[in-house]
Amino acid sequence: MSENLSATLDQQRAKHAWEAIQRVCAWKESTKRKDYAGQAKKLPIRLMTSGLGQALAFILAKADKKEKPDPCRQLHKDLSDWTLTHRKLPGKHPDSLLKSVCYGDAVFLRRATDEVLAYLEWLNRFAEAEGLTDGTE
User: Would you say the pTM of this structure is higher than 0.85?
Assistant: First the structure.
């Protein structure tokens, strides 16, 4: 009997989200760490209220191009990396989930929305576990 040793999709999501949160935990400024976690925590509600495109546009609008690292840009980058690179959803812009949503079709939008929501469950759980969020976010 052969045993399947490959990770499930949910395990892959968890691993990617854990690595993303660990990179954020390494940032020197706690305000940036908390901002990343706060934006990630609010994103599912924004997504359900306004849709994936508008939710992503909102977080990028809050980004500060002068800041390195920028929490909002990093969140978009992590979501793009997971959805477009690791899940291999056929986005028109492999480096930007927002651009891929803007130029994609309805099928892509539905699949990307479902994937982002599933990924954010892990990302937010790990951010909470690492103490990056509090009850006021």
Answer: yes
